[in-house]
Amino acid sequence: MQKGAIRVQTENIFPIIKKFLYSDHEIFLRELISNAVDATRKLKTLAGVGEFKGDLGDLRIEVRLDTEAGTLTISDRGIGMSADEVDKYINQVAFSGAEAFVKQYKGQDEANMIGHFGLGFYSAFMVSSRVELFSKSWQDAPAVRWECDGSPEFVMEETAKTERGTDIVLHINEESREFLESARIRGVLGKFCRFLPVPIYFVDKESKPDDKPVNNTQPAWIKKPSELTPQDYQDFYRELYPFGEPPLFWIHLNVDYPFNLTGILYFPKIKHSYEIQKDRIQLYSNQVFVTDEVKDIVPEFLMLLHGVIDSPDIPLNVSRSYLQGDPNVKKINNHITKKVADKLEEIFKNDRKAFEEKWEHIALFVKYGMITDDKFFEKASKFHLMQEALPGGKTGPFHTLETYRQEAEALQKNKDGKLVVLYTTDPVQQDSYISDAAAKGYKVVKLDTLIDPSFISQMEPKWEDVQFTRVDADITDNLIDKQEKSESVLSQGQENTLKEIFGLQLPDPHIKVELKGLSADAQPVVVTRGEMMRRMKDMAAAGGPGMSWYGEMPDEITMTVNANHPIFRQVLQENDKDKQGKLVHNLADLALLSQGLLKGTALTDFVKRSVELLEGKSKSRIILEP
């Protein structure tokens, strides 16, 4: 028997503290199973190069729970260790067996080790009052037993173990009794080990042993795209998200230079922003789960995607500071952006109809990316779509900016030479404005999602000579500022009288009344809100940062009175001043109502006034009839 003190140098204790002290305690199981996987893959590597000539046998890993004894055991049939190796890799905490092995067998597939044996092993003491290790080397050496209670003191002696491999027995401490519950262990295995490359079996002494491994050793992302069918990708998505809707499409990542990266990213169906779920991409390192917080690896706008990314260039115990500073992470980020843009462009070019059918689901990705990522913006401008809104709530064809420009700029260029993109945020409520615009030959597009106010504001400086104007931002004749003047059929005196009546009926300082000579077929009164202020209020409503105060500001309304509408000649000829005021007030309220701006007592008063006017009209008819 050998007794001694574990040799931990001062400078080497800090990695243990940083990696484990503040981590979730459940990570211990990931670390120990990762070590078991390493030991198994090392043996396969030795067999592959002819150094190990024995029978590999069943290279499974077992996790055995004994609640009565208070133990959790992790067993493998891998390379095992001799007493000298235990002394080297366990007693000298700073030394990593995986690193030494990789250097010796560099280039062999199985040598791509996932753990750092010395440090990962000591995570066991986060949940254990005592740890025993039983190991027999693949070479001709006596089996060894090692025991430690978490202090620097250990005991190491020969033992009677006959099978190759290593058993690690954790005597779970009182504070960590949760890890003696079967459901808890199954949950941790499902989280961290579901795709490890060696079969893992869970054995609970109190129940029947599992006849199937808890993990899928051949997940779809480690295979070549040519080996997979569309159904394989769909099946893997269901494995990741059992209750999710089928994805729209997917992107298979497979890079080995200048960094290693594999994975599958899925585009989920998203119709509304409230359905957005971030942190659905899982990061793995050689099939070991690392985290689902991939903000610094995946571009922000693609956090909405689902799927898996696997890179051995990212360590298991990853930190935010590491991700932010590592050059490989930046390269991975850029590569993913390019792959997504290329995939979208490919679908757009090869199957435009399918792309248009998916647009309502992928529009959020595309617009978010164009706002936040300049490289993506350059590519996405070619396949970003805007659908035409037609009168009556109908929809028309999709346009890229280029095709919209070709069809609209003849009529929709303003005095500054800018293309005015007319849009609607609510085709039903704004239908009358859409109809008026269509009558002039204008093309209106739908931009009706929560992200569109930000998208519009970001695109105006990025897209050359383009200006966005909501279809109800002004009277139709003024939507495209061409500096054209229109004449009123009313005399100056009649205009002054009409303006005075409107002023008396609408004393609100936030309503600006103006008279214009529009077409006689146009609405008698049109209410508009200035494009920029309304846009700011829309962004505030969508939760834009630092914009909440815009939402509290009153609406600045312009009420345009169409002096050429025949109804105003009747109003001016009305001798009953009270009735004349009510008619004007109702015309103004109808215009406010069309914009959803008539509410509360003002709406109640409008209804009462309308009834009074109708009753008055009926009485007049009764009196006049013989």
Structure description:
With 626 residues, the chain is α+β, with helices and mostly antiparallel strands. It has 4 domains: 2-204, Histidine kinase-like ATPase, C-terminal domain (Heat Shock Protein 90, 2-Layer Sandwich), CATH 3.30.565.10; 220-355, 2-Layer Sandwich (Ribosomal Protein S5, domain 2); 385-479, Rossmann fold (3-Layer(aba) Sandwich), CATH 3.40.50.11260; 492-540 and 547-624, Heat shock protein 90, C-terminal domain (Four Helix Bundle (Hemerythrin (Met), subunit A), Up-down Bundle). The strands form 5 sheets. It has an 8-stranded mixed sheet with strand order 1-6-5-4-7-3-2-8, with helices on one face. Strand 16, helix 13 and strand 17 form a beta-alpha-beta unit. Helix 9 packs antiparallel against helix 10 (352-372) and helix 16 packs across helix 20 (577-594). The chain is elongated, with a radius of gyration of 36 Å. The chain starts with a strand and ends with a helix. Residues 9-22, 94-98, 109-118 and 620-626 have low confidence and may be disordered. It comes from Compostibacter hankyongensis.
Short synopsis of the structure:
It comes from Compostibacter hankyongensis. The protein is an alpha+beta fold. About 40% of the residues lie in helices and about 20% in strands.
Key descriptive features of the protein:
Ribosomal Protein S5, domain 2, 5-stranded mixed beta sheet, Rossmann fold, 626 residues, HSP90_C, disordered C terminus, alpha+beta, single chain
Topology:
Blueprint: E1 2-5, H1 10-21, H2 27-48, E2 61-66, E3 71-76, H3 83-91, H4 97-104, H5 117-121, E4 128-136, E5 144-148, E6 153-158, E7 165-172, H6 182-192, E8 200-204, H7 230-240, E9 249-255, E10 261-267, E11 281-285, E12 288-291, E13 306-310, H8 320-325, H9 327-350, H10 352-372, H11 374-380, E14 386-389, E15 395-399, H12 401-408, E16 419-424, H13 431-439, E17 444-446, H14 452-462, E18 466-470, H15 476-479, H16 492-505, E19 511-516, E20 525-529, H17 531-541, H18 548-552, E21 557-562, H19 567-573, H20 577-594, H21 600-624
Parallel strand pairs: 2-8, 11-13, 16-17, 16-18, 19-21
Antiparallel strand pairs: 1-6, 2-3, 3-7, 4-5, 4-7, 5-6, 9-10, 10-13, 11-12, 14-15, 20-21
